[in-house]
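A quick aside before the break. I want you to see a complete sequence-to-structure record at least once, exactly as it would be stored in a machine-readable document. Don't worry about memorizing anything.
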Amino acid sequence: MQRKIRVLVGKPGLDGHDRGAKVVAAALRDAGMEVIYTGLHQSPEQIVEAALQEDVDVIALSILSGAHMTLFTEVIRLMKEHGIEDKLLTGGGIIPPEDMETLAGQGVGRLFGPGASTQDIATYIRSWFGGRADRPAPRARATLTRSTRAKASATPTPRAKATATPKPRAKARLTGARVKTARSRSGSRSAPKRGTHPIKRSRAAATGRR
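That is the input. The structure line, written in tokens, reads:
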């Protein structure tokens, strides 16, 4: 069973009219394709980044602002830079026939003007995808997205080994104040000598007087 074709529909630049893009997106979805719509005012960098993240087969741009030469050229340049030039870049808008030929020489696929049938767009995408399936797959290039760049730059720092150095035991020393206190306590606890007790002296004096 053949997988579904994944299509990214984008509106680059300052063009604020997305009714036609939504009609095309709905028609491609009804034709059995998976469609991702980026919304208005997308830059070429955002569109190519979304195509990388969503792993789409087709990028379809809707440009009505007249900046098709600049925007298509920038998108195809970024696609080549990221190694996805094998994807189909197509689209539509108010594009003169001579500009369509110039863009086709740069690698852009078929472009559709105002009044084009959505069935013709779906048929063209299916025929391109069918011809691509018959061709051998190109070698994938190693491309770094923003998320992978952030992961690659965050290298873990080596843990420092915990070296526990034993602390020397503090020697118990008696200060001068403690020595004096100990001496004073030992002197007060010493037994009095015989004949020198003050009470005995008083008693002996009393008996002698009598």
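Two observations worth writing down. The radius of gyration is 46 Å. Residues 6-135 form a domain with the Rossmann fold fold (CATH 3.40.50.280). We'll return to this after the break.
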